[in-house]
Amino acid sequence: MSTTVATTAAVGAALAFGVAAALQGAATRRVAVARGLDPRLLGRLLRQPLFLAALALTAAGFALQVVALQRLPLFLAQSVVAASLAVTAVAVARMPGLARTRVPVRGVAAVCAGLVAVSVAAVPGPPRVEPDGLLGAGGPLGGPAAALAALLGAVLLLAAAAALLPGPGTALGLLAGVGFGVGDVAARLLPGLAPADLRAEPLVLVVVASGAVGFLLWSTAMQRGTVVAVTAAMVATQTAVPAVAGVVALGDRVREGWLPAAAAGTALALAGVLHLARAHHAGQERRPGPGTVPRRPGRATGPGVPRPRSAPLRAGRAGRPCGGR
Description:
By secondary structure, this protein is an all-alpha fold. It is 61% helix and 1% strand. It has a two-stranded antiparallel sheet. Helix 1 (3-28) packs antiparallel against helix 3. It is globular.
């Protein structure tokens, strides 16, 4: 597979993921707010046509990402996929049912410029895992599938605790990114894409489980915060965690002398992601969190709150109130 085909697949994945995030955000606002980390939320979302469309786009995007990961190093593939936030920002600004804002042009430009620098600096090729390395079959973690499954279990436990805390869902978004990132590392380690290669491969189960965990955490977070802000938190960890794993454990490399450019490009892309998040975080309405009872403005009620007085009747002819007898 050529680098051009892999890069094109990564860009296609970013477009699919970006539109899917906007559709998923709209769908989460049409179902009851989950209390804590409730898997039944996914069941309710599956009855929403918008969520089904988001799921189809996500599946298509992930298939393209798996193709890209067969050739591209993780830090490049994940940086390209991080550009999906720019697509989400544009889609949210145009989508009915979501708070509309102006598209932050500077954030989109920073993401694109950073990705250009990273793509030029990266050395394409398959992963190189040492047999006794961190993710090697004879390594200290018991092999890649066991290590990634243990990390995914830890993410799920942390998310169950984070879901009980009040807040805009940022922690859940960050953990969702780690969950999706586990699946990305597993996809990078797949021996091939032929059915014979995947039939008995335990990493396939890790990929499927990470997708389910990531979707649950991401959907729960979207019910508590704005679509772009939560997606930005998710993208940050989904980009950083696999990128570090690729360099440390999978032998991903940059061109000789291009390390500063790769670091600067990654930092610029993430800075653009954060700028997009801040721009959409400010001034947007949030959906009430679990246990919160929405109230109409100016209609506070409860103990100690006086009931509003009725408006005085206007005097009519002969001093009678209007409408009175």
